[in-house]
Design goal:
Mean pLDDT: 90
Structural class: mainly alpha
Radius of gyration: 16 Å
Number of domains: 1
Helix content: over 70%
Number of strands: 0
Length: 97
C-alpha cells in the first residue's frame, strides 16, 4: 500500500509534538523552582537534558549520512523512532516527579 511505511513515523511525530511541550514545561518549572545552587538531583537532570540532545543530533547525522536517498521513509523512521522513545519516556518520568 503506497505511503503505509510513513504512517508509524507520522503517528510518532504527532506524539512528539504533543509530549515535547510538556517535557519543556516540566524542565522549565524545575529550573525556575529549583533554587540556587541546583541540587545534585537537578544537576543530573540538566546534564541528562543536554546529553540527550547531543546524542539525538549525532544519531540523526549518522543516519542521514548512511542512508540511501531512495529510502526516505526508512531514514525518517530511524531518526524519529529513538527521539520518540526518549521524549515519551521523559514525559512519563517527569510527570511523576
Amino acid at each position: 500500500m503506497p505511503g503505509a511505511e510513513w504512517v508509524r513515523t507520522w503517528m510518532q511525530l504527532i506524539e512528539i509534538t504533543w509530549s515535547a511541550p510538556m517535557v519543556i514545561g516540566y524542565r522549565s518549572g524545575l529550573m525556575l523552582m529549583g533554587g540556587w545552587p541546583p541540587s545534585a538531583r537537578d544537576r543530573r537532570e540538566y546534564t541528562r537534558m543536554w546529553r540527550e540532545k547531543a546524542e539525538a543530533f549525532g544519531q540523526a547525522y549518522v543516519v542521514a549520512l548512511t542512508t540511501s536517498p531512495q529510502d526516505a521513509a526508512g531514514m525518517a523512521a530511524r531518526v524519529v523512532g529513538p527521539v520518540h522513545r526518549q521524549v515519551v519516556a521523559n514525559r512519563r518520568r517527569l510527570s511523576r516527579r
